[in-house]
Write the structure tokens for this entry.
Amino acid sequence: MAYQKRPVIAITFYSALLQSGKTEVIDALITALKKDYNCIPIHSKSFKDKKTETFTFPIKKYNPISVINLTGFSLREYHHPKPFLMMLVGLCFR
């Protein structure tokens, strides 16, 4: 459930995770954050195309206080006044 007065955090990741069903890390992150924040998961095949609105539209619409980037590239080219957290995600296969 979204609460309008709570701060928003965006979580970016590649669509391949969603397509493969390997979303446990993303699900756990959202579960942990949703106690205090509204979370916006944003996925795309590629965030490198500056013309795509996959990334820019939700950022402009929801104005998150932070973006947690679960991809392997830098978001420095997107000028946003709030901090970005770069994370490395390890997937375990049993």
Summary: Residues 8-86 form a domain with the Rossmann fold fold (CATH 3.40.50.2300). The chain has one domain: 8-86. Residues 24-33 form the longest helix (10 residues).
